[in-house]
Amino acid sequence: MLTENSRAAWGSNGYRNIRLLVVDDDAEFTQFVSEYLAGLGYLVETAHNGREGLGLFRSGNFHAVLADMQMPGMNGVELLQSIKRVDQRAVVVITTGYRMNDLEASAVDSGAFDLLLKPVTLRRLGAVVERAVEQRGLAKQVSVFRRLTLALVASIPFWIITSAFLALKYHGK
């Protein structure tokens, strides 16, 4: 599953220190997915319902979230929307065992990174998670560049005033 870009971005030891959150009310699916992803080198935490998942998300720094569409109490779309209110840059992949066009459209409209239809192949799961993690990294880089750009733009008046002052001091009287 490791591509050359992934090795360069995350180190030769694999996905060390990349945290994933898996939220699904199906305990067997959650265990299977978390063991598979941990085997790839990810640090995986699990929750068995949306409220528990949201609590874990708020207390941790996760690179990506896999959330089931159909869960009691809080469905995947509601969890996605709650997570996005906490962190707009969050990368959430929705999994579902059912084709529900309305909920799928709602998930996409709410900012889901991808939709995975169960049963999902391990190859597809690994590829989507890798892309989700890379997306999170890109989102962080964009955020840093935006802050740097803002700082540079905000400093322009300072440099104009400083230049004018120095020009008057040394060249004009």
Tell me about this structure.
- With 173 residues, the protein is α/β, with parallel strands linked by helices.
- The protein has a single domain (4-143), classed as Rossmann fold (3-Layer(aba) Sandwich).
- Helix content is 58%, strand content 14%.
- It has helices at residues 4-10, 27-39, 50-59, 76-86, 101-109, 122-171, and strands at residues 19-23, 43-47, 64-68, 92-96, 114-117.
- Strands 2-1-3-4-5 form a 5-stranded parallel sheet, with helices on both faces.
- α3 (50-59) runs parallel beside α4 (76-86).
- It is elongated, with a radius of gyration of 22 Å.
- The N and C termini lie far apart (69 Å).
- Residues 1-13 have low confidence and may be disordered.
Q: What are the key terms here?
A:
173 residues; alpha/beta; 5-stranded parallel β-sheet
**Low-pLDDT windows of residues:** 1-13
CATH superfamily: Response regulator
- CATH first level: which class? Alpha Beta
Q: Report the count of strand segments.
A: 5
Indicate the radius of gyration in whole angstroms: 22 Å
Please identify, by name, the CATH architecture.
3-Layer(aba) Sandwich
H and E order: HEHEHEHEHEH
Which word captures the global form? elongated
Strand order of the largest sheet: 2-1-3-4-5
Helix-and-strand structural type? alpha/beta
What proportion of the residues form beta strands (DSSP E)? 5-15%
- The total domain count is 1
Helix share of residues? 55-70%
Query: What is the number of helical segments per DSSP (H or I, 4+ residues)?
Result: 6
CATH topology: Rossmann fold
Largest sheet, strands/sense/barrel? 5 strands, parallel
Mean pLDDT: 82
